[in-house]
Amino acid sequence: MPPGVNPSLPRDRSVRVGAVVAVAIAVAFVVWLLVRGGGSGSSNPAVTAAQTTTQTTRSATPLLEAASIQTLKTVPALVGHPIYWAGPRSRITYELTRTRDDRIYIRYLPKGVKVGDRRADFLIVGTYPVRNAYRAVQTAAKEQGAETFAIAGGGKAVLNKSAPKNVYFAFPRSNYQIEVYAPSPGRARSLVRSGKIRPVS
Fold first, then answer.
1. Could you tell me the strand order of the sheet in which 176-181 lies?
2. Is residue 63 within a helix (H) or strand (E), and if so which, with residue range?
3. pLDDT value at 15 more than 50
4. What is the tens place of the pLDDT at every residue in 77-113?
5. Contact present, 84 and 198 (Cβ < 8 Å)
6. Cα distance between residue 88 and residue 159, in whole Å
7. Do the beta carbons of residue 127 and residue 92 sit within 8 Å?
8. Which domain covers residue 169, as residue numbers?
9. What is the predicted pLDDT for the residue at 102?
10. What pLDDT shows up at residue 168?
11. Separation in Å, CA 91 to CA 10, 67, 113, 119
């Protein structure tokens, strides 16, 4: 287990923007404790406490499967909003997780890695329902150590120097937020800045 990961954290808890960036470096591994039922962690979008009033704890095991690109294309219609990914890759298994509150995670597993692997060694793109998501990113941008940059389409991205593996972004008038986790510091930022993180279509 990576340093700083606390498996006793309550499921699907909400945190203030200032705290979420500080713990974001451990997010990806904690996600897998949540989705595999092997612990009680949570991935925490950069939202304020007021914005999480509609997010309730869910006890049911989320959907977790190896998905084809065609399957991924059906998900936006099911959840009612776009879902984001890093595009198609060769020799990759797309691990799709859908929680009961419609958080969507697409994890890129290299050939030979089984679905449900608990290591935090792989690219993850998450799409979360968040009310006033753009405002949440703007608020996170005011935190100490935060760094922001604009993205195509008028969006804004934020990361924190204390958690360089995680980038969050959103667009104006949007009620969903995207998180990108990459195991190598700087890679998530590079992917977001390049425009490679885009809706599945």
1. 63-67, 92-98, 104-110, 124-129, 176-181, 163-170, 155-160, 146-151
2. strand 63-67
3. no
4. 999 999 999 999 999 999 999 988 889 999 999 999 9
5. yes
6. 25
7. no
8. 17-199
9. 87
10. 96
11. 35, 13, 11, 19
Mean pLDDT score, 147-175: 95
d(CA 11, CA 47): 16
Tokens representing 122? 């792989």
pTM, two decimals, is 0.75
Residues 6 or more apart in contact with residue 176 via CB below 8 angstroms: 81, 82, 127, 128, 129, 130, 133, 170
Residue 21 domain-assigned?
A: yes
Question: In this structure, is residue 6 part of a structural domain?
Answer: no
Q: Does 125 map to a domain?
A: yes
Place of tokens 């959907």: 63
Rounded distance, CA 121 to CA 117, Å?
Answer: 9
Q: What pLDDT score does 61 carry? A: 53
CB count within 10 Å of CB 31 equals 25
Q: What is the mean pLDDT of the chain?
A: 77
3-state secondary structure of 199: strand
Domains held by the chain: number:
1
- Are 110 and 66 in contact by the 8 Å Cβ rule? The answer is no
- Give 163's strand partners: 160
Tell me how many helices (H) and strands (E) the chain has.
5, 10
Residues in the chain: 201
Report if residue 58 sits inside a domain: yes
